[in-house]
Prior knowledge:
Elements: H1 2-8, E1 34-36, E2 58-60, E3 64-67, E4 73-79, E5 82-86, E6 93-100, H2 107-116, E7 125-132, E8 135-143, E9 149-157, E10 160-168, H3 172-183, E11 187-188
Antiparallel strand pairs: 1-7, 2-3, 3-11, 4-5, 5-6, 6-10, 7-8, 8-9, 9-10
Amino acid sequence: MLLGCLALAAVGCGGGSSAPSADPASQTSASSSLTASPSPTAPSSPTPPAVKPASGRKVSLEAFTARTPQGFDYDNSLAKEVVFSTSRDFRQNLEYSDVTIYPGTSNAFAARLSIKNSTWNPKPSVAPQVTIDGASFYHLTGPVGDGVQLDEYGSVQGSRLIQISFELQGTRAARRHLVDSVLATVHLK
């Protein structure tokens, strides 16, 4: 996943769109700061229920801040643009990244590169874009092998690509709650 992030710093511009995921359960909708982007064919969804924001350590990168879940480890020893956060049992893995990209890179292109440059098997699907803290984010979702479910959110903000990636195990409800609690803490700078 980190290689996918860093590969974006070495590629040119792109654009286009990808097909949305057919799994409606994979679409995020449980945070007041996170909403699915409207589309002409999709019905409006009701206002999502509030979720208690994550209260762990603060992640502060160049283009955004967020929080880790309470009790999760925090590791920024690899690079100043990447923070890893893992549960003590290593079943829940989060990655927060904020890297420089080439001008003109689109969310759709960033999503395709994240999939292409990953080692996930099977590859995740591209779900409808979502809005987090007022910005449009791509959303990758699906099983990625070994009982792990991926939810990755990314957004091009000027010359920065913000990515928050969740590789989680456990029930759908538990995974959704963890994702929504972290996304509720995302604030763009």
